[in-house]
Write a structure and sequence with these properties.
Helix content: 55-70%
Structural class: mainly alpha
Number of strands: 2
Oligomer: single chain
Distance between the termini: 59 Å
Radius of gyration: 26 Å
Length: about 150
């Protein structure tokens, strides 16, 4: 409960802490979550559900939600389907890639690129480290062929 001594003392600092974590970004969801949690903790569960529902509906029908739906669903589909590509140019396809660093991430990137048919140059601080990265890709390919075949 917000009236509990341990929680009540920290309650006034929560909005400032939230603003600091968001670095000033005008995101309504974290604010609504905080409000719903604090207000809902002060009433019975049925009223808490009503409070939470109202904050949720405010988010769903809000402008930020509409903008995100437009950007991440409609605009992104348009871009992925080539709708923003200039006419008369072929789609560019990478054939060779250079990966700097043959550690876990670099070796994984090299593996995925090689598996998709690209020529891969794997570079690290020395030949031994690059060979370790290459052997990782070979081991993954061997394990994959045992599972598939």
């Amino acid at each position: 409960m917000p009236s509990a001594p341990g929680f009540g003392v920290n309650l006034p600092a929560l909005p400032a802490s939230l603003r600091r974590q968001l670095k000033g970004a005008p995101l309504p969801a974290p604010r609504n979550i905080l409000c719903a949690a604090v207000e809902g903790a002060q009433v019975d569960v049925d009223n808490a559900f009503v409070i939470e529902s109202r904050y949720f509906v405010e988010l769903v029908i809000g402008q930020v939600s509409k903008n995100m739906t437009q950007a991440f669903f409609f605009d992104l589909q348009h871009i992925k389907s080539g709708g923003s590509r200039p006419q008369g140019y072929d789609t560019w396809q990478a054939r060779k890639v250079g990966v700097l660093g043959a550690g876990m991430m670099g070796a994984g990137i090299a593996y995925v690129c090689a598996r998709s048919g690209m020529e891969v140059v794997l570079k690290d601080i020395n030949l031994e480290a690059a060979e370790r990265g290459m052997s990782y890709s070979i081991r993954v390919l061997e394990r994959r062929s045992h599972l598939v075949g």
